[in-house]
Fold these 4 entries.
Entry 1:
Amino acid sequence: MISFLLMIILFPVYSAINPLIVKESALKNHPSVLAAMEKFRAREEAIRGAKGSFDTKIISDYKRQTKDDYRNTVSRSFLVKPFPVANSKIYVGSEQISNGSGRFSPVYNTGNPSTTGQPGNYSVLGVQLSLWKNLFLDPNRAALKNAKYDAKIAEAEKMLTELDIERLSQLSYWEWLTAKKIKGVYEELLKNGETRNEFLTARSKKGDIAQIVVTENEQYIASRKGALQVALERSTRSEYALSLFFRDENGAPIIPNPNDEFEDYPSDLTSFLQNLDMNSDIDDLIKKRPDLVSLQLNMQKSEVDLEVARQDLKPQIDLTTEYFQRTEANPNMPRDYLMVMAQVSIPIERNLGQGNIASAQARRMVAQNEMSLGQQAYKAEILSLRKAIQLRLEQVTQAQLEYQKAKELVVSENYKFKTGGGNLFLVNLREQAQASAEETFHEARLNFMDAFLSYKALVSLKN
């Protein structure tokens, strides 16, 4: 009993390769999925970086005047907190003013609006905000908005990548399976020709048939070997293509073994359509489709850029209010005072604003056109695939019927040939036709899966 359990642990039960296993492996380990996740994470972290524009800071400055008899020194240290409202900030700190000569320096010598020219230490509380330009939107707030849009775009792109990988991984499985089956078709066709050649060679040596019959059959064998080489190449390429999605726990590609068990096509392909929504409202799908959501977000980003550009034509009126309070008693000096300052900047030439606005408007128009085209293309693809699925299902039915009839003809022609009523040319012709019909049948099923998976990816929504 213990040895049996050890065998289960050391040698886990083998599961046949199937589309679900390949899909789950790809979603977990495919580099495109991992890259999309990291891109989304990077965009989320970029939001935090944009919020850093409103981080609290410590700002200090030091000024010293040495001209003439004045030895004026001004040092300021503040704790500054910007806010995402009216381009405002609040700061609190201290200002120290000294005059080594005992003579007071005039205010303009300090270059600082809060300095009175009177020595002393002051506690300072200040508020600054914009009253016109940058009142409702400034570059820092715009950067934060766009960072949030970028994160949503990255999330949509991650969802779209997952949908694409789901589709491509499953389609690569069915391509591998189809190539495997077509290779088997031409292996069997060649085997039949070689077996017949042995029979014909033996009869030729006995003098029952002419050597030209053997030569003719060898020509057919050469043709079948060439067809098999083409099928082998396709099968090899499909194995490596599947390995890009079928990966181990470390993410390394796994090339399927020719002897691996696998899931075959179901006998009735309509089973794939049982849970597929073929009548959903396209306008509702458009609102949730990841790539179309990204286009809508790009449109909103362009609106933000346009509004920022419009700020360049507005007069700038910034208001600063500072409250000063002395930290030491001085009967000759006021205990505290309030200073109010307005800074005004009016653009005279308008090249900056008009140029930025025109550029932003052009980018907005690009975003509008891309969104319009994306919605139209999506709708056209949905409608065409709904019809294509049904048509390709009918093609599978017809290809299967053709294959069945071709098999019946081969059986009949082989019987006639063995009983002396047929000829080698017709036998080979019937076998070639059967192989071609079987290949067409397998290709028709693959084409159906392509349409089915493409449509499913278009209407599926990731959470």
Entry 2:
Amino acid sequence: MNILCTPLYEQQLKVILQNYAQEDFTATKKFKLYLDTILINLPTKANKYKKAQLFDDENIKEIPHENFHVLFFIDKLSDTYLILTILAKK
């Protein structure tokens, strides 16, 4: 079981964390720690998340976290979870 992140996700997360850190460093650490915990537990919790509204594919799901949605793809053939992007809620 692999959990991989796209460069897009990593870049978006970096910007989000930099913006948070300017306001409240402690809140930034909590945000990142909680997000990491969600992603580490993804293999056992993936079924609890809803299908992503932006895609018509049951293998693309979204994780709501604070004011964001983390989209991920379940690749059943390679037994991999690919973290695609993190989007601000509208």
Entry 3:
Amino acid sequence: MPDIGDASTCRIREMPLFTRGLDGLDAAALEDVGVIGGPCLFGTDEMIIEIKHKNGEKHYYDFNSGRNYIETTEVNVAEHFSLFAEQIADVSFDSRKNKMTLQEYECLAYPMEIANLLNAPLVVPIPDMSYKKFLASISDHIDPVVKDKMLESFAQESYRIADMHMELFEKLLKKYPLRRYTILHSRDTDTLAQFYNEREEYFKLDRSKGNYTSRAGKEESVYDYISMIASPFYFWGTKNILQVDSIDEMSSMQKCAKVHGNTISIFSIMFPEILSKSGQETIFYAKMKDKIFIEI
């Protein structure tokens, strides 16, 4: 596409790009196009859940993977909350994220640069509300006082991390000035309410089938991830949506396109994520010592 031929951020000219339907994104379609993209709130090893039992036992789980952080067990955090609900006295968090990773930089910079080159509006979702929904859904059986304290503690940590995302966005905005944009996050209650209201018309029947995810507790958060892809349409009536995102989001894009049918057209430019220092996994899934961070 000539319009995005000048894209030059980080690796974008060196790595394979996986596209969907770009031959249909012609001059007419570009007159009514909105861009969607952005990183996850945080990755593996960046938020550890500490569960304290009434007998003094402590158990640790990685928020992202749900796996036990220290012990060798197949029990994940959702199962722990269910199995030991009556024994749980307190839940707290070791929030280790103090910098943005290079992968998060790319996941934000790419859609911003493409939107700038196309002179198109951009939506950047910061899914702090979705992470909190997951935590709330797996803790239904624990003491309500413990649960409320836990959710409030997590909310404060998620706000701090969301602010880091928004600080990076403001820095990048100087490089990629946009004519219109929306950052979707939990504290912008009016925008969030519009998003929730507009999407129901398209998802109310599909939701009842329970086919978004097989992972317990993730249904509502995955529903968010899928529907966020259509947010330029919900906010501005934009019927051509260009998703610029990690290849990991391919499944969500396909589900979103299926739900909306011919109402909107979803195009995509997707890219592989960066390997960590260890070379064994991407930065998102790496231990803190193997992640690559940036200075904002």
Entry 4:
Amino acid sequence: MTVTEKDCNESNLEYIVTSLGEVFNHTQSNISIKRAGSRSVLEVEFPERYSEIINAEIADKIAEVIAINYKYDYFLRELKISGLSDTENEILLATLIAADLEEDKKYAFDKIKGSYELAIDGTFNFRLQPLKRKWADVVSYMPPSFINSQLKDFISYLLENKKKKVYVDGEKVYDAHYRRLKRCNLLGGEKVNLLREILLSNCGEIEISGNIPKDDEVYLKELYKDKIYFS
């Protein structure tokens, strides 16, 4: 299976590889990332009996790249809201991405699965235009500015009725099956990465052990309130 991407987005291919390391090991797959002109190329060779499994796993991660990284880049470029600090803006972007993450991911996955040679950027630009139109609608609905507690109220509203539980150990986040989550690697920015990872998990409850960064702790308490448990 061959997956290509613009060379400036090679980190998206690296995300696929690191996320599926265990799968690749168990299926005796050979993986390589190389450059071809202005393109980065991921090649995965695997025994034929694992063909459908590998294809589905890679398609799932490509869909995640589109639903998180591409959506982040789109919102960062198109969404201009005043009254927010840089950190607050990053929190807002992560929350908006998380709001429809599973729906966006499923739509992209259905368009990708079954393909054994594809370009991520080309797939997005030519086969996933409805996603871009949907994101444009989200941008058009957003207010031009947030003041006082409006951002916190808005995010709290989006977090209502979330049921999943995640576990936080220091600066690492794990899902209910104790699998490490690294979706924040698909975002830009460098602030409150722990909080943004939690937001991208679409969780409703958080169990925390160990020490967490102070900035993350402040925002977590504001947004999740009594949904945080310490162990």
